[in-house]
Amino acid sequence: MNSKKKFVILTGYFKGESYGLLGPQMAATIISENSEYDAIVVAVTNEDDKKDLKAALEHHFGGTRMVIGFSTLGGRPDLFGLAGELKTKGAITILAGPQANVDFKGEKDHDRFDHRFKGMSDRFTFALQGPAEAILPILAKGLDGDISEFDGVLFKDKDGQIKENRPAPWEDQWLSRVDWTNIYRLKGTSFARMPVTSCQVLQQIGCPHAAKERKIQIDYPADLADGTDPKRVTITQKGCSFCDVAQDKGFMGAVGEEAVKSQMACLPGQADGSRVAFELINENPLPRLDRTMELAEECSLELSQINLTLRADYFLKGQENLKNTLETARKKNIRILLASIGFESFDDTILKNLNKGVTRQMNLDTIKMIRDLKPEFPFHFGYLKEEGAHHGFIHPTPWDTPDIARELDRTIAMYQLAMDILPPHSTPLIIHHASGLADWIRQIEQQENIQFERLGTTIAWWQHTRPV
Fold first, then answer.
1. Are 279 and 311 in the same domain?
2. What are phi and psi of 461, to 5 degrees?
3. Number of domains in the chain
4. Are residues 310 and 221 part of one domain?
């Protein structure tokens, strides 16, 4: 009989999918293997009935005090609201994962500007930033004890002021194991284990593009621009201007090979003896892709498919590495899928404002080279939508004009991008309150005496009013 206490991590999820969640599932693994708590991950879709979810939580905890972590929420107001409701009823609610610190504290200067995002400190008992193992000493001491000295903790003191401790450094020893069987989905008013068909392996923390801070100029939104005298805002930025993860982690370098090998050994097996497909979390994966396959071979692991997420400039720099890797992959019968290339746009003005660090021509050169590679490796190289790829394309943006729209349409038609590159639906630009573009918005608000609407943790760049 399992006498361990129970811990649930709730996280956002997409309906009908069956992918694993490395961050939450690794956190649950760390908690289960190193504390008196048995932790599971519950993936919650937008369509899930919250009454059923609360009933399932009550059933799972069986009358004991609920201890619930919230991670990778994607700004969902329903999950933030659920956290507050559960806290009010006596549960311990913990905000963790990407942007936990800024979402707990709220938007910059929200105490001086009433319309800004106030933060979620009233919905959560405390927040935890940084690596998941920071929760272990807190659980060991007891959740009702003094947590004020622990690494990575954010909490409200007795005067209602938010206190924040710096996170602990990332260490490979905690990045080695993940139990891919600990993820569940809501089924009626209970939780059912969900088998995963694709996973992730962490090889790099953060993004090299976010390693260097620089000053950039971003154009005013098209509806506020002066055509005769273009207005721009200067901000200090790491990485892409829309990327909240760049602000959250920056670039922390590579994970050690032994930890990567151990992660691959944790991947679930398939009927043919190979491991399930996995995303290699590394924004610049091509130089080390051959070595990744060697590491698997050293562990006697048979890989089936490696999914890559990368930038166009890193593809261009690593194309020779990729061709050599594909030769190896063909011999080992491993499929390499370019699952997502962050093109984001095919207009230089928009790419500049997004601080992508690439140009329209670099994106087009990348597409040509990808298309040229496909016939040479038809079975072991993928990049098509029907092969599971979903490349980045951000639209609409604040800088769209009739001229830009016409040129974009011309480029899409001329290079037949809708045939194999563009996703079925574009992604509208999302501005998280802690991203670089949020600084841009706040400067425009001050300069023009206007207010952009806040929608939870994001800023509605398309909706502004002038205070009366």
1. yes
2. -65, -15
3. 2
4. yes
pLDDT at 468: 67
How confident is the prediction for the chain on average, in pLDDT? 95
Among 196, 222, 242, the domain-final residue is: 196
| Cα(306)–Cα(279) distance, integer angstroms | 6
Please calculate the CA angle 330-333-334 and round it to the nearest 5 degrees.
Answer: 90
Pairing of strands 204-206, 251-254: antiparallel
pLDDT tens, 213-259?
A: 899 999 999 999 877 778 999 999 999 999 877 666 667 789 999 99
- For the chain, the residue count is 468
Question: CB-based contacts of 275: which residues, under 8 Å, 6+ apart?
Answer: 264, 267, 268, 269, 296, 301, 302, 303, 304
Q: Is residue 458 part of a domain?
A: no
Whether residue 234 sits in one domain with residue 161:
no
**In whole angstroms, what is the distance from residue 309 CA to residue 279 CA?**
8
Alpha-carbon gap, residue 461 to 468, rounded angstroms: 20
CA distance 66 to 433: 30
Range of the domain at 268: 199-432
Give the pLDDT confidence of 77-87 residue by residue, as tens digits: 999 999 999 99
Instruction: Report yes or no: 306 and 274 within 8 Å, Cβ to Cβ.
Output: no
Write out pLDDT tens, residues 128-175. 999 999 999 999 999 998 999 999 999 999 999 999 999 999 999 999
Provide the β-strand partners of residue 427. 394
Structure tokens at 211: 């390693």
pLDDT given for residue 189 in this prediction: 96
Same domain for 81 and 187, yes or no, is yes
- 455 in a domain, yes or no? no
62: left (phi over 0), alpha (psi -120 to 50) or beta: left
Q: What is the dihedral of CA 237, 133, 120, 187, to 10 degrees?
A: 120
Give long-range contacts, CB 8 A cutoff, 24+ apart: 357-366: 357/209, 357/240, 357/311, 357/313, 358/311, 358/312, 358/313, 360/411, 362/312, 362/313, 362/316, 363/312, 364/411, 364/415, 365/312, 365/316, 366/312, 366/315, 366/316, 366/341
Note whether 192 and 290 are same-domain residues.
no
